[in-house]
Design brief:
The complex is a heterodimer.
Chain A lengths: L13 E2 L6 H27 L8 E5 L2 E3 L2 E10 L5 E12 L2 E13 L4 E8 L7 E10 L2
Antiparallel strand pairs in A: 2-4, 3-4, 4-7, 5-6, 5-8
Chain B lengths: L1 H33 L2 H9 L2 H21 L5 E2 L3 H25 L9 H20 L1 H4 L14 H8 L1 H20 L7 H8 L2 H21 L5 H6 L7 H22 L9 H25 L1
Classes of the chains: A alpha+beta, B mainly alpha.
Chain lengths: 141, 293
């Protein structure tokens, strides 16, 4: 049986009048450098992104044949300045102007210069028709 | 010369103890928010000005906490000491949040700088508060001259090693459940399973063990001396850390099963990864549970 922990009334740390030791001063110096570096980074972003551009979503895709299916891997990248949320990517395959297969995916979040990858899978050969892979929508965070 | 060296060694040892206590407090308080997708997103999307404001506000709060609690054994009585402790609490929060975000693969070499910085600053807030609350989170070890080993209570503890072991298993399970129960049903575990692979999973395990050992045997929280002196079946520091880790993994698996997050038809490897990833917060909770219960 252990003595109970007095979580509600813990003993206070003992006051100390000793000057800071060298080890404490070194910790403080390193800690100060860490904070200055982080604040400096945030300050740099603030100065450089005063008027950020809206999201610009670029998409690239290819077609690969794997085990009887046609895979269309895609990469969507936000080349703009602001973040895009709920980015909707849709793929449509039209053969003889008829929409024969389609799919859609949602990328939760794309900050500036971030990219996400995925793939659509078709049963028909996209080369036999017109394949469209595009970003349909996004919303601001 | 020798006393000076000894004094220096004592100062370094005391400083390391304080820092370890701060880090452990930070993890106890900050780990649930690390498993929250929304915090990653908020950190990624807010403006740099808001990041600076968040950091400075946290600095103010940690300063106030350092005046009353803090993470050091010696309370800060001077203004400069409180400011110094607040700065160190923020820096420890930033370092812990950064390392954990890297461990969880939420910051990689491909992560844009602005996104990484936002995640680090927002995740460091609960860590920094946890560092500043270290002395409050769990009662500090009593350094009074009365040795617990010599008390009748300690002798009785030694005689009832099996009971102590059973009590520790229960405390680990309860602590693990308290911290990890709110994380188990969320999608974050699934997201992290997809993100963490190979060596990162091994690092996850090693970090869990290190934090568990640190909280119970290094951070000088409650009952550390008593725990080191206990003679239960698994109560050497290393064996207790290893066994309690396994118990925390069991608790993590049970929670995932309870929330139907473990698919029986899925490959064993997937379930194993889920358990290891939830095992990190569960292990931290389990360690705190063994101290607090």
């Amino acid at each position: 049986m252990k003595p109970p922990i007095k979580l509600s009334q813990p003993p206070k740390p003992q006051p100390s009048d000793e000057p800071r030791s060298m080890a404490e001063l070194i910790s403080f110096a390193i800690a100060s450098m860490v904070i200055v570096a982080v604040l400096g980074g945030a300050g740099y972003l603030w100065v450089s992104d005063r008027n950020p551009l809206p999201p610009t979503l670029e998409i690239t895709s290819t077609t690969e044949y794997r085990q009887g299916k046609y895979y269309v891997p895609f990469t969507v990248k936000n080349t703009g300045g602001e973040t895009a949320e709920s980015v909707q990517v849709i793929a449509e395959l039209r053969i003889e102007n008829m929409l024969v297969e389609w799919g859609d995916q949602q990328v939760d979040f794309l900050s500036s210069q971030e990219e996400a990858t995925g793939a659509f899978i078709f049963t028909r050969d996209p080369d036999l028709g017109a394949l469209s892979v595009r970003v349909a929508s996004y919303k601001e965070p | 010369m020798a006393p000076s060296k000894s004094r220096k060694a004592t100062q370094i040892s005391r400083e390391l103890d304080d820092l370890v206590r701060g880090i452990c407090g930070g993890f106890l308080f900050g780990i649930p928010l690390l498993y929250t997708i929304e915090v990653w997103w908020i950190g990624s999307s807010v403006s740099p000005l808001r990041l600076i404001v968040a950091l400075l506000t946290t600095l103010g709060v940690t300063y106030l906490l350092s005046r009353t609690e803090g993470f050091r054994k010696a309370k800060a009585t001077r203004e400069n000491d409180a400011i110094g402790d607040a700065v160190e609490a923020i820096a420890l929060g930033i370092i812990c949040a950064t390392l954990t975000l890297i461990l969880l693969r939420q910051i990689t070499l491909d992560t844009p700088f602005n996104e990484a910085l936002g995640k680090i600053i927002f995740e460091s807030v609960p860590f920094s508060l946890g560092v500043s609350l270290s002395n409050q989170l769990l009662q500090e070890a009593d350094d009074s001259p009365v040795q617990k080993e010599s008390s009748p209570l300690a002798r009785r503890t030694a005689e009832n090693a099996l009971n102590e072991t059973i009590a520790d298993i229960g405390a680990t399970l309860i602590g693990a459940t308290i911290i990890a129960f709110s994380i188990a049903p969320t999608d974050e575990v699934t997201v992290l399973v997809a993100a963490i692979d190979g060596p990162w999973l091994v690092l996850n395990v090693l970090t869990s063990l290190l934090l568990s050992y640190g909280i119970v045997f290094q951070a000088n929280f409650a009952n550390q001396k008593q725990r080191r002196s206990q003679t239960g079946i698994f109560q050497g520091p290393l064996s207790e850390t290893a066994i309690s880790y396994l118990i925390s993994l069991l608790a993590a698996a049970l929670m995932l099963i309870f929330f139907r997050k473990l698919d029986p038809s899925a490959p064993f490897e997937l379930a194993f990864r889920q358990v290891l990833i939830l095992g990190l917060p569960a292990t931290i909770g389990g360690a705190a549970g063994r101290l607090a219960l």
